[in-house]
Amino acid sequence: MIQLCTKTQNNPIRYDKQGIRLNLKDCSLEIQNLTEHDQGLYVMNFRTNLAFHEQVTELRIYERVSLPVISISEAFNDGVCNVSLVCSLEHGTEPVYTWWSGDGKVTADGSHILTDEGRRLALSIPLPNNNSVYNCTVRNPVSEETRSVDLTQLCPAHEGLGQTAGKPGTRRLVNGTLGQSVTLPGCISGENISILTWDYGSSPTSGNVQLCTKTQNSPIQYDKQGIRLNLKDCSLEIQNLTEHDQGLYEMNLRTNQGFHEQVTELRIYERVSLPVISISEAFNDGVCNVSLVCSLEHGTEPVYTWWSGDGKVTADGSHMLTDEGRRLALSIPLPNNNSVYNCTVRNPVSEETRSVDLTQLCPAHEGYKPLRVSHRGRFTAATIIFISAIFCYMYYKRTSSVQGNVVAVTDKA
């Protein structure tokens, strides 16, 4: 623990950190110009001639979410609009994605498929349709932003990558690992090639960039470094993947038998690191009350799952899952045969697991003493917050022992 400020009787306030201010009227602490380093636990110790009081507040810092961007890949055929919408952000901490239409919140059904923690919406609806406007709302505990898209303006008029004369081309999805190589399939024989080209586009609406060309009786012409064309199966190898390689790749092949077009969507993921489990616990009367938080140093689009001897952990009377599965709060009696809990983090290219044994935590580990009143609230602010403790003057009027009081945090951002 690092001391931030001190006030003793008949002495002025002593500050040990810049950018804070102690309010003696209510013992609150103001922290200005918040950074990620301000996140953590703040302990207030207050002593009067009657009693001693300790209050613990957990401060979490969030970056406001940016206005989301919706990228689109669509195909229009026989009056049906088949669309894949992807909602993405430039910045924002712990975003939660929700799709809405005129019918209300979008959920998975026969016409809608939600993946990537709600970021991606695949749908198939007939047109014209009264509910053709779709909204992506992104929120976190301190902010919320929404972007809309009208499908009627997309399907009839726009021909994106992978479409010829209004008909959808063949599309495949390939996942690549950041920093490694990937091969995009060609899936047909490379014999009797008249002309073969691979093109790249970052989105369906962007212009295409030619990567390589092969014509009959001529060598392969490369327009980009770090790629290799395999003429046996027309596949394309991309080496040392970066985030800029993500997008749509179109192969066009003409032979003496005809013309073939194929589109491959390449998504780049960073491998997840070994997760770290942080713990805050209280042991009382043979029951272990624990809050476990599973976190990563790096990894793209991680999905968190908790496991115990009983299998996958789900919300029930003894377990509560929050923060998209990162945080597990539980209350179990000890000893218990299923005291080992595992946090598994995965994405499409990697998976890692970390374990913790509760029997090694509750009996031996001492956090803040159970006799003290502690409160850990999830409160945030963007620029200035007040961590308010109990009013000081109340302690001078008390005639009995101090009872636990809940700290209030006021968002003044």
Descriptive overview:
With 413 residues, the protein is mainly β. It is 1% helix and 50% strand. The protein folds into four domains: 5-60 and 378-411, no CATH class; 69-153, Sandwich (Immunoglobulin-like), CATH 2.60.40; 164-269, Immunoglobulins (Immunoglobulin-like), CATH 2.60.40.10; 276-360, Immunoglobulin-like. The chain has one helix at residues 392-397, and strands at residues 5-6, 14-15, 20-23, 28-32, 40-47, 52-59, 69-77, 80-88, 96-101, 104-105, 112-115, 120-126, 133-140, 143-150, 163-164, 167-168, 170-177, 182-184, 193-201, 209-215, 221-222, 227-230, 235-238, 247-255, 258-269, 276-284, 287-295, 303-308, 311-312, 319-322, 327-333, 340-347, 350-357, 384-388, 408-411. The strands form ten sheets. Strands 17-25-24-19-20-21 form a six-stranded mixed sheet, with no helix packed on it. A four-stranded antiparallel sheet has the order 3-4-34-35, with no helix packed on it. Residues 156-170 and 364-413 have low confidence and may be disordered.
User: In what order do the strands lie side by side in the largest sheet?
Assistant: 17-25-24-19-20-21
Roughly what is the average pLDDT, rounded to an integer?
77
Beta-strand proportion: over 45%
Q: What is the percent of helical residues?
A: under 10%
Cα-atom radius of gyration: 29 Å
Structural category is mainly beta
**Name of the CATH superfamily of the largest domain:** Immunoglobulins
List the helices and strands and how they pair.
Blueprint lengths: L4 E2 L7 E2 L4 E4 L4 E5 L7 E8 L4 E8 L9 E9 L2 E9 L7 E6 L2 E2 L6 E4 L4 E7 L6 E8 L2 E8 L12 E2 L2 E2 L1 E8 L4 E3 L8 E9 L7 E7 L5 E2 L4 E4 L4 E4 L8 E9 L2 E12 L6 E9 L2 E9 L7 E6 L2 E2 L6 E4 L4 E7 L6 E8 L2 E8 L26 E5 L3 H6 L10 E4 L2
